[in-house]
């Protein structure tokens, strides 16, 4: 048995129309226990009815935690132009089902595009997702692994290529596990010797290990490594790959804020120590969500947005929590474009803390609500921006990831590229590495 959280929306004539702002309607969230075999059966019937327009993803399967996933045929990759609501509605009716509603597509260049359709058949409702396929991050992992393996197999380091660029810039850091450290000049001969020490490339696709969120930075290199360089001496160089925005962490917080007898209220949560350090006023947060829910002003504009300067001890504790979301024991390797990459040394707890910043200069808060007009407008998301002393800023959000009202995700976003740290190197290569 598998549990799906389904939102049932009550609007007039909603079938075939996008509902981009779900919470502005009356939404009832229901948890239903659905036989996974029925989900697969319905999804497979829709795919078969498409007569080869759709197929099941070969690399990661058809079942997601939110429903059934299908991909368009190669010649129909431009799904936003090909698959209409009417097309899907006809497919569903062809298998004896009903299209209940359509959730507006989310599109970005990193995770591709997808539509979500809520489909009913035989008393069961399932989300049916049509996606353009693999994310750029997944493609980066695959291509990098293939590129590295081919060079190791052939025993030939490609001049100006991505592996040479990685080895040259790894040489900028101390305490590497190579038997012989390349000279400070990073000569081609020395880099080539390091290349010959690589015995194998270990690829672990689809790694999405959750970092433990606490006030302690622990070694997670082996767990989060997407591509590992195995050396002849038995040592490993762990690479955690990234392609897209720098999302520091993404943790579930369902149950933090609940609705009981139509009253929104705070509940105890395992991250309460972190929330307390951040100085979140949960009375203000609950009132802001209630204001947004009822479309009635409760919180003043002045109370919804303000700034504070944390004392040094509190700031240090917050930095430790952020550091736990990074962990240590690996190198962070980010694709920026075909010739530009970023390499960050996250091998030791101290280097992680140093990279994050030594002091929080200011914390800016924006609470949910409808007051504020054009200054910061209607929002159901709690936002705290931490401004650091090293040119970085971290955006902490308590938000709902499915279009609802009550927050179910804690995320922290940043832009590592702006860090002023000798633990970070942005470098370019001569031979483009194209995804």
List keywords for this structure.
single chain; 435 residues; alpha+beta; six-stranded mixed beta sheet; 12 helices; disordered N terminus
Give an overview in words.
By secondary structure, the chain is α+β, with helices and mostly antiparallel strands. The protein has two domains: 2-131, no CATH class; 248-424, no CATH class. It has helices at residues 36-49, 79-82, 85-94, 136-154, 162-170, 188-196, 221-224, 272-277, 282-294, 301-304, 312-326, 349-356, and strands at residues 2-9, 27-34, 54-55, 63-64, 67-72, 98-108, 112-121, 124-131, 198-203, 227-231, 236-243, 246-252, 257-260, 263-266, 305-308, 330-337, 340-346, 360-366, 382-388, 393-399, 409-414, 424-428. Strands 3, 4, 5, 6, 7 and 8 form a six-stranded mixed beta sheet that branches. Strands 9-10-11-16-17-22 form a six-stranded mixed beta sheet. The chain has a six-stranded antiparallel beta sheet with strand order 12-21-20-19-18-15. A hairpin with a 2-residue loop joins strand 4 (63-64) and strand 5. Helix 11 crosses helix 12 (349-356). It is flat. Residues 1-33 and 75-81 have low confidence and may be disordered.
Summarize the structure.
The protein is an alpha+beta fold. It has helices at 36-49, 79-82, 85-94, 136-154, 162-170, 188-196, 221-224, 272-277, 282-294, 301-304, 312-326, 349-356; strands spanning 2-9, 27-34, 54-55, 63-64, 67-72, 98-108, 112-121, 124-131, 198-203, 227-231, 236-243, 246-252, 257-260, 263-266, 305-308, 330-337, 340-346, 360-366, 382-388, 393-399, 409-414, 424-428.
